[in-house]
């Protein structure tokens, strides 16, 4: 059933290898197709109209600047001023949904709800109303990495009081926008919010407090999520009738060999990167995964700590967090093989996640590789992730693919196209298997500020003509392919935009 086809390329870039599924399969009529973005990566206007400072504003203004190319998101895509242009691109693509995030400090410049910034409020009203004018459903992420610096100064997600601050913020945004927004994502990527940001220096706030602050964050970020979900239940669900979920970065981890050691290593890796954040919300028992908890408690004891560095949930907290999601958002990019013996990190920092769970990553050469060294993918990885969740939680979970995309250098557009086709075939495979996937959001609309990679990494369906004084946006081939899939609701592996279609003046 799974055949691999080769292309005869007539255009600059070759679609490369793409897996072709059974013919004639269609996405259901109510399936949502969209693109995803994050406030800090596109808005710019970092200190305009009363916006407060976020941890990303503080981080990128460090000396020396942390981004590889020294860039910042001060201007980014200027979406704060050019949202109508963004929505014009969404209309060209024919999507019926757009996922974006709210910048906490644009709404609450102090981080607290003592003062609500009217110009910040107006901006998101404008975006939402413009989307709805064109029947594009807003899916709103309440938090996507840009925590108020004021709250970080008080410990951020390592301080249990964040629960109340987050709930206050969520109450403000549900109240302001919930009449029109019916799908909410509380937290984007708990793993990335905590692991690198609190454990290393590669993501704001760059706390570099590994094996400790990252674990505190893991607990309190999930309590924040649950708090917002329960708030919605108490005060908004009856009148607004929306759904509230959470979005996880979900890579696929599989054992490098069928040895018992590699199987165990894989389970521990999944627990430490993935289910540590998913189990507390979706498992029956609640709380952090068992083997990981035991491992970190043992390590902590050996290191002389009188407590586990991974703070367990109390029974009451388990109950509070358990079952608090109407859907599971999946941000899927990468796959890894896990080995108990190969490629182990030598002398990992102590304490750290890498020391607590030291397993090796193997990325086979034959997998498709993106422009980011860690980003490669195995066949069927998205289907595998969704099947894994359904099996682990033994539940009929509703999924949205809240992010999927591929970073490539100019000239390798065929690789990006193959990524989208493969993953969308994975969505169809999942639907065939009875897995409830309700939408797919491409990462991302246009090249944007890619965190510590700055502008060097390009995920956009659109690129920008830097030689044009208006910085004209130009759809890449992938944009045409995505548009065709959305229009026909099926994946035609033979479709490729003609040179005429791709002339700039015709647009999309
Ligand atoms: C988006 O922002 C990045 C950073 O400023 C820039 O490199 C890119 O060209 C912008 N793209 C568009 C479409 O404006
Ligand atoms: C991060 O912490 C490690 C271990 O303490 C240290 O070696 C390293 O220099 C720190 N990095 C920065 C940028 O402070
Ligand atoms: C899952 O839930 C949906 C909606 O409630 C329902 O239509 C479907 O039959 C369920 N599937 C299974 C396998 O229970």
Automatic annotation (TrEMBL):
Pfam families: Glyco_hydro_1. Keywords: Glycosidase, Hydrolase, Signal. InterPro entries: GH, GH_1_N_CS, Glyco_hydro_1. PROSITE patterns: GLYCOSYL_HYDROL_F1_2. It comes from the Eukaryota. Residues 1-18 form the signal peptide. Gene3D superfamilies: Glycosidases. Belongs to the glycosyl hydrolase 1 family. PANTHER family: GLYCOSYL HYDROLASE, LP05116P. This is Myrosinase 1-like. It comes from Plutella xylostella.
């Amino acid at each position: 059933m799974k055949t691999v086809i080769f292309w005869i390329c007539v255009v600059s870039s070759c679609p490369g290898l793409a897996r072709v599924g059974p013919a004639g399969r269609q996405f259901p009529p109510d399936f949502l197709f969209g693109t995803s973005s994050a406030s800090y990566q596109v808005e710019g206007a970092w200190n305009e109209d009363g916006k407060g400072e976020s941890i990303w504003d503080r981080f990128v203004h460090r000396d020396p600047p942390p981004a590889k190319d020294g860039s910042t998101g001060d201007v980014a895509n200027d979406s704060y001023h050019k949202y109508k242009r963004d929505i014009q691109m969404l209309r060209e693509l024919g999507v019926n949904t757009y996922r974006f995030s709210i910048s906490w400090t644009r709404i609450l410049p102090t981080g607290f709800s003592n003062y609500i910034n009217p110009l910040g409020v107006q901006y998101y009203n404008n975006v939402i109303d413009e989307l709805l004018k064109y029947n594009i459903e807003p899916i709103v992420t309440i938090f996507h990495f840009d925590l108020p610096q004021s709250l970080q100064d008080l410990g951020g997600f390592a301080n249990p009081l964040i629960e109340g601050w987050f709930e206050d913020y969520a109450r403000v945004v549900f109240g302001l926008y919930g009449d029109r927004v019916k799908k909410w994502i509380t937290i984007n990527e708990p793993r990335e919010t905590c692991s690198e940001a609190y454990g290393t220096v590669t993501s704001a706030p760059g706390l570099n407090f590994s094996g400790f602050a990252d674990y505190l964050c893991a607990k309190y970020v999930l309590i924040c999520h649950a708090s917002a979900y329960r708030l919605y239940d108490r005060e908004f669900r009856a009148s607004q009738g929306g759904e509230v979920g959470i979005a996880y970065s979900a890579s696929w981890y599989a054992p490098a060999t069928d040895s018992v050691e590699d199987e165990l290593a894989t389970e521990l890796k999944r627990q430490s990167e993935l289910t540590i954040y998913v189990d507390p919300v979706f498992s029956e028992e609640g709380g952090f995964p068992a083997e990981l908890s035991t491992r970190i408690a043992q390590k902590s004891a050996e290191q002389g700590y009188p407590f586990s560095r991974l703070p367990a949930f109390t029974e009451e907290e388990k109950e509070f967090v358990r079952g608090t999601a109407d859907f599971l958002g999946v941000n899927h990019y990468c796959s890894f093989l896990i080995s108990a013996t190969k490629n182990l990190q030598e002398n990992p920092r102590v304490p750290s996640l890498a020391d607590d769970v030291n397993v090796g990553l193997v990325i086979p050469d034959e997998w498709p590789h993106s422009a980011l060294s860690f980003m490669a993918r195995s066949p069927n990885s998205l289907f595998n992730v969704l099947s894994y969740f359904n099996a682990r939680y033994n539940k009929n979970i509703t999924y949205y693919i809240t992010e999927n995309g591929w970073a490539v250098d100019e000239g390798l557009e065929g690789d990006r196209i193959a990524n989208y086709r493969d993953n969308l075939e994975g969505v169809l495979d999942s639907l065939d298997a009875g897995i409830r996937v309700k939408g797919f959001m491409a990462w991302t609309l246009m090249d944007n500020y890619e965190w510590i990679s700055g502008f060097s990494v390009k995920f956009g369906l659109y690129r920008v003509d830097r030689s044009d004084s208006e910085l004209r946006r130009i759809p890449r081939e992938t944009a045409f392919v995505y548009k065709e899939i959305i229009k026909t609701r099926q994946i035609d592996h033979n479709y490729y935009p003609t040179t005429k279609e791709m002339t700039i003046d015709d647009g999309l």
